[in-house]
Design brief:
The chain has 5 helices and 10 strands, in the order βββαββαβαβαβββα. Strands 1, 2, 3, 4, 5, 6, 7, 8, 9 and 10 form a 10-stranded mixed sheet that branches. Strand 6, helix 3 and strand 7 form a beta-alpha-beta unit. The radius of gyration is 18 Å and the shape is elongated. It starts with a strand and ends in a 15-residue tail after the last helix.
Amino acid sequence: MAVWYPLALSRSLPVVLGGLLVLGGCATKSRSSSRAEVIKQILPSTVQLERVAAGSLHAGFVRLPAPAQLARVVVGEDTLAVATPSGTPEPPQRRAALRDWLDRRPLVRLTTPRGPGLAGQITRLYDDLGCAPVVVQEARDLQTVLALVAAGVGDAVLPASAAGIVPPGVRLTAIPLRTARWQLGLVWHPGVPNPNVERFVAVVRADLPGDSTGPARSSGR
């Protein structure tokens, strides 16, 4: 079985900060093989959804919403946060003040191909606020983005769940707006029966305070 697993979502499931886990045998192995492999790699939600829909990926943890034909369980929520060098003034929390603070501000960001869902979420936030920060540099991973913030190249807007990989000298401040939040969910194809997937979904559900199954709720766009 192949499952993609993101940043910390559950105490009882494996976690690799800054990456994703593939649980299960490689596609080239025999279907009867019980051997499992763990591979750390980044896979955007858009790619996961395509592969789950096509049946080439058994399940994935993704940014919701998901296509209607896929089953899903809401497993958590994430929010955008501003990464700034420690010792500098914190970003304001009020909407108007945050808009003025972000507008034309030099920012570092993750390249869009590496995080299309994140890029879309940030764009929706900027559109909602009516601001236009200036991108001064891009990086291919969040660790590099945070290192650039620590070096004073610019601030950054990142998921608050990146707190586990924030280096010394950088502070994360969550953005308290609806357009900065989104749901995370486990998705699988109900038309492709797999007992391993059923067991995995059961483990995830058992670790949640409540079972949230069905169409994803609005993330406040």
